[in-house]
User: Fold this.
Amino acid sequence: MGVGLFIYIFVMASAALVEKKRRDHPNPSSLTLFWLLPQFFLIGSDEVFTYVGQLEFFYDEVTDGSRSISSAMFLSEIEIGNCLSTAIVKIVERATGGEQQGWLRNDRNRSRLDNFYWILTAVNAANFLVYLWVSRRYKGKDGSVASVEAPVDMDVHH
Assistant:
């Protein structure tokens, strides 16, 4: 899971850099779609590591009778994240001057999406640090303390 969270920092930094290049380019419409390929590759990698890791964690750490509930918790966690994303957009929109003057305007060429992406980069870096802090202190259902250096058990038949 931590690998996915770490990759997402680079997803947002890449988005900020590409948006800055687009804004500063003399003819932004001449930029091709291929400028977005690194972001799509990184976000796909992020989701593989994060979502699969989260689902495996929820599935492994609950009792046998609670596995369906853990799947529901996993999907609920994704929805909570979507709601928090909407809240961040609204907070940044209001803090920077609204739709007319702020970073998130209706006009993409007058918006400052690069600044918004840098904020998301910082939020995701903080999220990764919190994840590291919590994961170092987490005790599994068998009572063992997880270690970042511990080898990953790839055996799916426990």
